[in-house]
Amino acid sequence: MNTLLDIKGLTVAMAGLGRPILDEVSLAVHDGEAVALVGESGSGKSVTARTALGLFPGGATVSGSVVVGGTEVVAAGPGDLRRVRTSVASMIFQDPRAGVNPVRRIGDFLTEPLRRIQGRSKAEATAQALELLGAVGMPDPPRHLRQFPHELSGGMLQRVMIAYALTADPRLLLCDEPTTALDVTTQAEIMAILGRLRRDRGLGILLITHDLDLAASVCDRVYVMYAGRIMEAAPSAALTSVPRHPYTRGLLGSAPPLTGPMPRLAPIPGAPLGLAEAVSGCPFAARCAHVVPGLCDATTPTLERHGDSQVACLRAAELIDETQGEGLR
Question: Which Gene Ontology molecular-function terms are recorded (predicted)?
């Protein structure tokens, strides 16, 4: 199995902050695999995804490795970065309207990279743009090429952005909360399109989301991130059936079910750790119901194997699936 994205020990820090933006992050995405990176806002998910394109915060100190399609991007020069961004990996962002020029037609937007980067003629670029719009489920590609962004709904425009990402014929799609701004029905349609493209083209997908249920339903594996660190990594089925980390359990317990009676939700107490806040020990200790004072707040846990999961928790071996009625021993 070919590894498209291989991040190992990635740390991104900036002077004046209390903690690193990313702290020893490791994750991988393989050919044809959908992988999710889940966590609350500010956890470092989007920064992690952008590192795959060599987009690091200005003035940051970076260590570790980010290999994309065989290219190490941490120290890559302009030529290598251009190759990665134009032929290996593409990104889809949360707000589709932020990525388009409102006074340019959709056809101009889609054909420009095909002509300038891929070297296609005008006719070839137009034919390819029509094909891509059809591939993402646009009902009338010729008409849509003549339209302006304001003439399309948010869901339709996100389809255009997916088509734009595909103009580079990438092997890796980085999807940064691509459905957050959309209604539930449109969200399902967009995720179905991404799933079909994954199957048809053999794409690897890294999905950034705060929705653990969505991640588990469409992805093969899930990484759970908190305060710039990976807290748990597991196959989707294992993560939802036997969540090992208290933070993962908290995320699952605070989400309302889609069917059946509404139970009493148990929100995670406190607030996510800010970048200005220094931390010693486990970054989740201040919000954890299972914290052991003097241990969890003094010792930084590393990812350790527990069953099918990797967990960064000093008490991971004690966590038992609550659906079996045993709780935490």
Answer: ATP binding
Q: Are strands 172-176 and 204-209 parallel, antiparallel or unpaired?
A: parallel
For residue 26, give Cα distances in angstroms to 4, 11, 33, 148, 230.
14, 10, 17, 41, 8
Q: Report the amino acid identity of residue 238.
A: A
Q: How far apart are CA 245 and CA 78, in angstroms?
A: 40
Residue-wise pLDDT for 145-168, tens only, equals 999 999 999 999 999 999 999 999
CB 184, CB 217: distance < 8 Å:
no
Show me where the domains of the chain are located.
3-88+170-324, 103-162
Task: Please tell me the CATH code under which domain 3-88+170-324 is placed.
Answer: 3.40.50.300
What is the phi-psi region of residue 270: left when phi exceeds 0, alpha when psi lies from -120 to 50, beta otherwise? left
Task: Answer whether 63's CB lies under 8 Å from 11's CB.
Answer: yes
CB 205 within 8 A of CB 179: no
Q: Go through 136-154 and write b for each residue having 16 or more CB atoms within 10 A of its CB, e for each that does not.
A: bbbeebeebbebebeebeb
For 67-77, write each residue's pLDDT tens digit: 999 999 999 99
Confidence (pTM): 0.92
Give CA torsion, residues 118, 122, 128, 133, to 10 deg. Answer: 120
